[in-house]
Amino acid sequence: MGRRKDHSRQELAELAINSAYKIVASDGYGALTARRVAADMGYAVGTIYNVFDDLGELDLHVKARVLDRLYDRILALPPAESPEVAVTALIRTYFAFVQEHSRLWESVFERRDSGGLALPDWYMEHIEKPFTVVEAVLRPLFAAADAAQAGRVARTLWAGVHGVTELARRNLLGLVSDEDGVEMACDLALRYLEGLRAGDG
């Protein structure tokens, strides 16, 4: 454990996040422990608590990285000719991301005991970033005065799509339908947008 002076505090934080991310990706949320992260880094366990308040803080940084990678993936999508085309592209990309990073994505919805504390503002900013992309593609459906409604619709739409995606990720979709999960999610979204265009939203 003689490497403790090899890195700055910021470098240690990055090493810890990289190690934790790798552990969750490989073995799931339950495998994330301070001892395992420290061993992967080549440092003593105390190093983790010198850099982070607790394991929960490190865990939030891992979740933030997962959210950022989803954000980068959907942000890179090319412009679409309509909100409907854009939304179906977002859904297909989201579905693929969740399938490719199943354990990491599952961990985003798990939380260690926080003593009732709210999530910190810096983490909430990472949650908001993917929604900004969805809101942007939905905004043409609303008049400028109703632009704020795009945020509500984006979250409502995601909640429905997430439900289908989660069933598919857990191989439970077959309990309710024989349809392809991606196509079900796209159909759900398109029907919702159709209602909005008709003035039902």
Question: In brief, what are we looking at here?
Answer:
The protein is an all-alpha fold.
Describe the structure in your own words.
There is one protein chain. This protein has nine helices and no strands. With 201 residues, it is mostly helical. The radius of gyration is 20 Å and the shape is elongated. The mean pLDDT is 91.
Features:
201 residues; mainly alpha; Arc Repressor Mutant, subunit A; Tetracycline Repressor, domain 2; 2 domains; 68% helix
The CATH architecture category of the largest domain equals Orthogonal Bundle
Largest sheet: none
Broad CATH class of the largest domain: Mainly Alpha
Task: Give the helix/strand class.
Answer: mainly alpha
CATH superfamily annotation of the largest domain: Tetracycline Repressor, domain 2
CATH topology of the largest domain: Tetracycline Repressor, domain 2
Listing every helix as H and every strand as E from the N terminus to the C terminus, the arrangement reads HHHHHHHHH
Determine the fraction of residues in helical runs and give it as a percent range.
Answer: 55-70%
Beta-strand share of residues: under 5%
Total number of distinct structural domains? 2
What Rg do the Cα atoms give?
Answer: 20 Å
- Please report the distance between the alpha carbons of the first and last residues: 60 Å
Please give the count of helices.
Answer: 9
* Secondary structure tally: strands: 0
Question: How confident is the prediction overall: mean pLDDT?
Answer: 91
pLDDT < 50 runs, ≥5 residues:
none
Shape: elongated
